[in-house]
Specification:
There is one protein chain. The chain has 360 residues and is mainly alpha-helical. It has 3 domains: 5-96, Orthogonal Bundle (434 Repressor (Amino-terminal Domain)), CATH 1.10.260; 99-145, no CATH class; 162-301, no CATH class. Helices cover 57% and strands 6% of the residues. Strands 1-3-2-4 form a 4-stranded mixed sheet, with helices on both faces.
Length: 360
């Protein structure tokens, strides 16, 4: 007895294997009892298979091949497709209750940046967004991003805008994971920082790849992610593993003085703070760790012993001369002058603006 040729086709859609089995049984003018005898199955088992309540096992598939002539691989494939379809249906039902959470995530920005695919289906968009975060459910997202112990180490922005905040951090994580790094070495990282300090005099297309290379060799991945709406941060630090740290930066403020201060601020966190903490530079000084990181960055760029000299500067030329003496960019000296004197519009022309074009 041979099966009809149409059953050699392996569909790419979900069909209940029991329905197909019934059709084949009827096409052979075979009773349910006869099929049960031929396949060595009980009538009750066939009933459950017909209804989709009982799966066709590999053993049953082999028996059905002998009884009907339809290859076992066909039954196995049909069963796998059907079970996958059922799982997705159940997943979709569960996701529909999570759509409210989706409204808190900046999906439009993430779509524009190419991290998630555009979709007219809310459920499909939810699935894309969960994939971006690397979680299987909103509950899993909440356990990672909203647990009190972690939130306590974050900026208040995480309390008011957790979706946008987590999206910016996650982009940094994805970028940093792609950067190959040596195991973290504190001594090498300090050496790298000294070299990078001198790179502040260079153009972005020169300093950006070099600072990334030097930091990677010391076990630190530098991620640069454009700032997002409602996320007023300059940088963040997170350990991706015990051997690899991430420094996440943006160009908020656009000036080179703020960029370099932020970089060395985050470097201070890498050197001095716990590897369990996610630390965010939001300008707050309530946390003693942020105060220490500010102090580290400030002293590393321009020692406080020069503060009086900086405050008494009277011309562009004096800033350039001191910058040459300190071997750093004039814009950093100009930024220190503004900070110390609160004369925020003085010597702005010396502070080079930075753009994202070297990161596109």
């Amino acid at each position: 007895m041979k099966a009809k040729k149409q059953y050699e086709f392996q569909p790419d859609y979900a069909v209940c294997p029991g329905e197909t089995l019934q059709e084949i049984m009827e096409s052979f003018n075979m009773s349910q009892k006869e099929l049960a005898v031929r396949a060595g199955l009980t009538v009750q088992s066939l009933n459950r298979i017909f209804k989709g309540e009982q799966p066709i096992t590999y053993e049953s598939a082999n028996r059905l091949e002998l009884a009907t002539g339809v290859p076992a691989r066909y039954w196995n494939n049909l069963e796998a497709q059907y079970r996958e379809h059922l799982a997705k249906v159940e997943e979709r039902k569960g996701m529909e209750s999570d759509l409210q959470w989706l409204k808190t995530i900046p999906t439009k920005e993430l779509t524009q940046r190419g991290f998630i695919k555009r979709s007219d289906s809310p459920v499909a968009l939810l699935r894309e967004t969960l994939g971006f975060y690397g979680v299987s459910s909103v509950k899993a997202w909440q356990e990672i991003w909203n647990i009190p112990a972690v939130a306590a180490r974050r900026s208040s922005c995480f309390e008011s805008q957790p979706g946008a905040a987590s999206a910016w951090i996650r982009q940094g994580e994805l970028q940093a994971h792609k950067i190959e790094c040596q195991a973290f070495d504190k001594s090498l990282f300090m050496q790298a920082l000294q070299t990078i300090r001198s790179l502040t005099c260079e153009a972005p297309e020169t300093f950006e790849p070099e600072m990334k290379r030097l930091c990677a060799e010391a076990g630190v991945a530098i991620a640069m992610v454009p700032e997002m709406k409602k996320v007023p941060w300059n940088g963040a630090t997170k350990w991706l593993s015990p051997r690899k740290a991430m420094i996440l930066l943006c160009l908020r403020g656009k000036g080179e003085d703020k960029f370099w201060f932020s970089f060395f601020h985050e470097a201070g966190h890498v050197l001095h703070d716990s590897r369990k903490d996610l630390l965010i530079n939001d300008g707050s000084i309530r946390d003693h760790r942020e105060q220490r990181a500010n102090q580290f960055s400030s002293e590393f760029l321009i020692s406080s012993e020069y503060n009086d000299e900086v405050q008494n500067i009277n011309s562009h030329d004096e800033i350039v001369k001191l910058a040459q003496q300190l071997r750093i960019a004039p814009g950093i000296v100009a930024g220190r002058y503004q900070f110390l004197t609160k004369r925020w519009h003085y010597y702005k022309a010396l502070i080079q603006p930075l753009q994202w074009k070297f990161q596109q």
